[in-house]
Amino acid sequence: MIPQYLVDFDLRELPTVETDCIVIGSGIAGLFTAIKASEDRRVILITKKSLMDSNTRYAQGGIAAVIAEDDSPLYHRQDTLMAGAGICSSSSVDVLVNEGPEGVRELIRLGTLFDQEDGVLALTQEGAHSHRRILHANGDATGYEIVRALAKQVLEHHNIEVWDDHFVIDLITDDGECVGALVQKPHGERLFLKGDATILCSGGAGQLYRYTTNPEVATGDGVAIAYRAGAHIRDMEFIQFHPTALSYPGAPRFLISEAVRGEGAVLRNIKGERFMEKYHELLELAPRDVVARAIVSEMEETKSTFVYLDITHESADMVKHRFPTIYKTCIGYGLDITSDWIPVAPAAHYMMGGIKTDLNGESSIPRLFACGEVSSTGVHGANRLASNSLSEAIVFGGRIVERVRSLPKLKKTDISAGCDLGRQEHPTQAMVERRLKLQKIMVRYVGLRRNEEMLVKGLEELNRQLPIFGGALTKREDYEFANMLICSLLVTESALAREESRGAHYREDFPQRDDEHWRKHLLQIRELGIVEETSDDV
């Protein structure tokens, strides 16, 4: 079994720092939640790199909210439920679509400059949305603008202390409650950070896969440390692969936003043929999982490693104005998207599952909260609707802070948690090699298409890495690999257990959606394994 703690320690021998609220992660969820909590609480915000390193920074498309007069929360709700393929929590979706517009207004109050047209907020449309409801900033740099505005507020706030380059190794629990975290400082010293509330906002796990739109920091840390602490983890089989990441020699898997297809771009195979009409009536605006699998099918059929995205029929001025970041990035690699077709292929993009929370963002462990991609609020179901992730972080971040305000202070008792397994340092394969091997296993066996034989093989390969938990882990890359291994096991085990195809989870040996047997969730609990969860709400 996975151990509760990654390292040996004794809290009585470590320095203790106390605060009201611990926020772990610096994407939109972490920054926004820290700002709201700091109105009447002392906050320590921890980021393992820096404030500007997060998935939010790379979010291009925008943030979804009902702003237009011809739109309504009911339409937004219908679109979200349809994308979620039957297992969204309707109560969570209701919260999102009704509270999202106020969340956007709060972002504007905090200094976010969304694009405008003729003095009103500019709205665009993305795949599987029935109305134009996507707000964007600087064309296709929405995430960067939100992080810029919120980071400025964080750095100027007297109630927020930012710890850059710190790593949360594990959560500390006492009498069933989360009381804080074991933290490693930049030079290796460790401390116990104690807080009345601990909020995980640590993002996703795109780095489980060799090809991902996520930055290097997205190693699934939050899910893994919550799992070790005993929290309920839900729906980990649902990994969303973005259909259109740049696939070009020498270039990173840079995201080519869904909004490009929303503005009329079409997909072509390497023969130049449009192909989406073979796969879905919504063509290029079909749900992401459908488009991603269609692209893989075309790549296999034409023996190619990519397909093309073509927006050359639009005016060059429109393309440059609407997608300046994509245009500049591609031109840097010799691709002019106003006249060249863009070579693209699917890449791991978003984790629908995560730490199960209630409508106030609280996990199964009292005083432990989760917000953003690390959480499983029930909003996304089996497949996230485009641009709902930023909205979710704002809406549930605000709810978490309201709940934190109702918590009593921690009792002033000594906490003597510790772990002594006698772990010894011993020569091991370099972590960078282990990480690459894990990523290749996940791509090969637990990718866009799955079957029992592949998943069993993947599980066997991953299990061979388990002995690392018996050795002494000391550095950030050690902890990250341990967390990636745990998340990979969770994804693979739940993908093997779900014998159907639904949303982003596709089983070749069970190609149909099976509502009679599988309209339910899979929970993973460290001491119990996989537990099926049925709910009237799905």
Task: Write a structural description.
Its cofactor is FAD. Residues 20-390 form the FAD-dependent oxidoreductase 2 FAD-binding domain. GO terms for molecular function: L-aspartate oxidase activity; steroid dehydrogenase activity, acting on the CH-CH group of donors. It is found in: Cytoplasm. The protein is α+β, with helices and mostly antiparallel strands and 538 residues long. Among the domains are: 242-348, Succinate dehydrogenase/fumarate reductase flavoprotein, catalytic domain (Flavocytochrome C3, Chain A, domain 1), CATH 3.90.700.10; 428-516, Methane Monooxygenase Hydroxylase, Chain G, domain 1 (Up-down Bundle). The protein is built from 14 helices and 23 strands. The strands form six sheets. Strands 2, 3, 9, 10, 11, 12 and 19 form a seven-stranded mixed beta sheet that branches. A five-stranded mixed beta sheet has the order 20-18-13-22-23, covered by helices on one side. A hairpin with a 3-residue loop joins strand 22 (521-525) and strand 23 (529-533). Helix 12 (452-463) runs antiparallel to helix 13 (476-497). The chain is globular and about 65 Å long. The two termini are 31 Å apart. The relative contact order is 0.17.
* CATH homologous superfamily classification of the domain at 242-348: Succinate dehydrogenase/fumarate reductase flavoprotein, catalytic domain
Percentage of residues in DSSP E strands: 15-25%
**Residue ranges: pLDDT <50 for 5 or more in a row?**
none
Topology-level CATH name of the domain at 242-348: Flavocytochrome C3, Chain A, domain 1
Put simply, the count of helices is 14
- The rounded Rg comes to 22 Å
* CATH-level-2 architecture of the domain at 242-348: Alpha-Beta Complex
Class by SSE composition: alpha+beta
Identify the CATH class of the domain at 242-348. Alpha Beta
Largest sheet: 7 strands, mixed
Integer average pLDDT = 93
Write down how many β-strands occur, each being a DSSP E stretch of 2 or more residues.
Answer: 23
Q: Determine the N-to-C terminus distance.
A: 31 Å
Q: How much helical structure, as a percent, in the residues?
A: 25-40%
Shape: globular
Protein name: L-aspartate oxidase
Keywords: FAD, Flavoprotein, Oxidoreductase, Pyridine nucleotide biosynthesis
Catalytic activity: L-aspartate + O2 = iminosuccinate + H2O2
Main location: cytoplasm
